[in-house]
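The following record pairs a protein chain with its ligand, flavin-adenine dinucleotide.
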Amino acid sequence: MHVVIIGAGYCGSNVAKLLEQDDCIQVTLIDSREVQVHKIAGVRAAIRDDWFECVPIPRTHLLKKEKSRVIQSGIIQEVTDSKVFFCDGTCLEFDFLVAATGILNNSPAEPPLRLDREEIIAHYRKVANVIRKADRICVIGGGVVGVEFCGEIKSAYDTKSVTLVHSGQDLLDGTQMQLSSSFLPRVYSGLKHLGVDVILNSRVKIPKCHERGYLEGYRVLETEDGKEIETDLVLLCIGGTPNSQIFPKDWLDTRGHVAVNEFLQSTVAPNVFAVGDINNVAEDKLWVRAKSQVDVVVRNVKRATRKAPLDTVYNTERNPNIMIIPLGPGFGVANLPIPTGIFGTSISVVGKANHLFVPETFKSARATPPSIAGMGILSSFVDAVYTLFRRGGRKHTILESPLDGVLQ
Ligand SMILES: Cc1cc2nc3c(=O)[nH]c(=O)nc-3n(C[C@H](O)[C@H](O)[C@H](O)COP(=O)(O)OP(=O)(O)OC[C@H]3O[C@@H](n4cnc5c(N)ncnc54)[C@H](O)[C@@H]3O)c2cc1C
């Protein structure tokens, strides 16, 4: 059986590694980029020169079996329920498809989709130079990426003025996680400690950005309620766009995500599955959560290739509420799923801020991580916590009477 996986980011790469171990399955993994982008390190790489190399991960040794194939820089024009059509006129047939194309974040923390390794590094170098030159920076959008940008900038450049403008009542108000009641106050006090000005309940007219997610040069931004913010650089951190343009419209929900059932199987094409940010599972679009979708998709695809009814249901509530917000390499706030819930700098630094999972993610792709002083053994900490706290022992519901008919 030929299984094509489109998107070799965190989810697609891991699905491919697990599926190729099945002797009955031939895997083809396709990505439009030449390397995997380690997005979790993207904000810091947009600021610190010694972090540029922590983002692009080579896929040279990702898959091991001779029957497997990785197509890098593969530009797809269109996908049907049996074929992938490339822009160069070639086409690939499949029995099963896994959509893992993610969301393109619109901030400068994520490089465009078709770049090679050197172009990705050049992207970060350019953004880091622009940030270095600006004295007054305005970050628009108070989600995780916007908050991290403020913390990372102030930790690298203490004297710059940084203003965070958010349209909602509270920072991070888009999260669906149950966070400890003292988590958010700690985030505010962390930003205050660093000297970030936070403006809530305020919308600025978003300027048109010619570069990816930023706008250079002096300007005065006006908020709808009449405030004026003088700035030399605007950083847009207002979310992203699902990479679903290549898929048939009837696979998608109204927001452009691939619509899936509880088996992470397309609601309209039974031989199609979707994993990670691209599917329409209603939960925070984070790798720490999507990680456990990988097992569900792998198990269900394996059963589908054998014409067995699907039996593994994805349970969002079994994912622990872990959120660690680094505010620079040596500072941060952590929410962990234990009674006291909330932790300050030491756990945040050990668990994430110091290493941003660089060693672990490179190793998972069978690549050698770049060496940055002080980064290393700490990086598997959160993974260990995650595994320890996953509720119920078993990750997902394995149905005792699998539902016939899901494969019609
Ligand atoms: C700046 C930033 C920081 C983040 N920090 C954290 C964090 O600290 N913790 C956390 O848990 N999550 C974090 N996230 C979210 C996390 O990165 C996503 O949840 C995760 O990337 C989802 O994995 P994925 O495999 O679904 O998608 P991705 O990792 O985005 O992978 C999608 C892949 O598909 C490829 N692709 C897209 N379109 C096409 C196409 N048409 N043809 C071929 N290939 C295509 C892309 O090149 C990419 O390789 C962060 C996100 C950003 C942007």
